[in-house]
Specification:
The structure is a single chain. This protein is of the alpha/beta class and 359 residues long. Helices cover 43% and strands 15% of the residues. It is built from twelve helices and ten strands. The strands form two sheets. The protein has a five-stranded parallel β-sheet with strand order 2-1-3-4-5, sandwiched between helices. A five-stranded parallel β-sheet has the order 7-6-8-9-10, sandwiched between helices. α9 runs parallel beside α12. Bound molecules: 6-O-phosphono-beta-D-glucopyranose. The site of 6-O-phosphono-beta-D-glucopyranose has 14 residues, from α4. Its EC number is 2.6.1.16. It is an enzyme of class 2 (transferase). GO terms for molecular function: glutamine-fructose-6-phosphate transaminase (isomerizing) activity.
């Protein structure tokens, strides 16, 4: 039932604040005391390897950044179809992420891995093939996702995943419980931030999309914790609009991607308040590129209004280890709007399936 929404993607984008609030209500009291992790019954780990594809891989990058920066745990993010080219050391926990739990590349990757690595599944389908194969399962609790392009399942994967790793870091003594409480308190403001981001984006995105819709290709830039969101923004444009969209770390721009920037080339910058993004923005503008900043206070499509007395982890003070989660809302809305203005079906893009069960 679409209710007042024009399509499932719009509905599922809108559902995100509610999904996050629901997830946090389930896991909040079990995060800072380590009990989420203890309840999984998995052995301790020294390294983490995330295995996933597409949007789930981007969620995995956010989770890997979190465990690395908060706990100093070495992490790998592995594209599922490339798993045979990586070597996982002893003590590695495999975190396999898949909305559907049926993506063949992910299931095959697990078959190829050495059995001694415990597997934790993060999925929206707890009775899926992935869940059956795993040693322990985390449920995303995103509810049914009908639109082919993942939206709310991404956000749910991020929130369930980062709270689970925070819990694991507390349980292993790598993170102080008081720090975990502060981090979870910051996440508790996410539903409100996402809703606010959606209101601003609804106002600004249609005109932005109209300005850039005839461009043959798009560049998405980010840095550090902002990078998975830039990659996700680019993937959404590719999947929905059938346009080239490349994501690049902002610092890599000068090593190649800048050559793609010409008069009017749209360059979407995920701005999480890192001043080093400014030099990339200046380089793009010097070549005539059309810069769209998304996220930070004062950007073209802000995802956060920073109160003058902010004492939390809001951008511009210190960046949360999971980066600018709320920035995904304007990125999803931009991709959807672009696709609609180009006459594409946002719920059923051609050649795309809800889950790819072939390899
Ligand atoms: C792709 C879909 O083929 O599979 C992507 O088009 C999706 O949108 C990816 O992110 C992974 O799917 P899943 O179900 O494993 O998360």
């Amino acid at each position: 039932d679409l209710g007042a929404h024009p399509d499932h993607m719009a509905k599922e984008i809108d559902e995100q604040p509610g999904v996050v609030a629901d997830v946090l209500a389930r896991v909040r009291h079990r995060t800072a005391d380590g009990s989420t992790w203890v309840g999984l019954g998995l052995p301790p780990f020294d390294r983490l390897a995330v295995v996933a594809c597409g949007t789930s891989l981007h969620a995995g990058q956010v989770i890997a950044n979190t465990v690395r920066s908060l706990g100093g745990v070495p992490t790998d993010t592995v594209v599922a179809s490339e798993v045979e080219h990586v070597v996982l050391g002893p003590g590695t926990l495999v975190l396999a992420i898949s909305q559907s739990g049926e993506t063949a590349d992910v299931l095959r990757a697990l078959d190829r891995l050495d059995d001694r690595h415990p597997v934790l599944a993060l999925t929206n389908h707890v009775h899926s093939s992935l869940a059956r194969r795993a040693d322990a399962v985390l449920d995303c609790h995103a509810g049914p996702e009908v639109g082919v392009a993942a939206t709310k399942s991404f956000t749910a994967q991020v929130v369930v995943g980062v709270t689970a790793v925070v819990s694991a870091l507390v349980a292993s003594g790598r993170l102080e419980p008081s720090r975990a409480v502060a981090l979870v308190d910051d996440l508790a403001r996410l539903p409100e931030r996402m809703a606010a981001a959606a209101v601003v984006a609804a106002d600004r995105v249609p005109l932005l999309a109209a300005t850039v819709r005839d461009a043959p290709g798009f560049l998405f830039l980010g840095r550090g914790p902002g990078l998975p969101y830039a990659a996700e923004g680019a993937l959404k444009v590719k999947e929905l609009s059938y346009r080239w969209a490349e994501a690049s770390p902002a610092g890599e721009l000068k090593h190649g991607p800048l050559a793609l920037v010409d008069d009017g080339t749209p360059v979407v910058v995920v701005d999480h308040g890192d001043p080093r993004l400014q030099s990339a923005i200046a380089e793009v503008r010097a070549r005539g590129g059309f810069v769209v900043t998304i996220g930070g206070a004062g950007s073209d499509v802000p995802a956060v209004a920073r109160p003058a007395d902010a004492t939390d982890l809001a951008w511009g003070r210190s960046v949360a280890p999971w980066g600018p989660i709320e920035a995904v809302v304007p990125l999803q809305m931009l991709a959807r709007e672009l696709a609609l203005q180009l006459g594409c079906d946002v719920d059923k893009p051609h050649d795309r399936a809800r889950s790819v069960t072939v390899r």
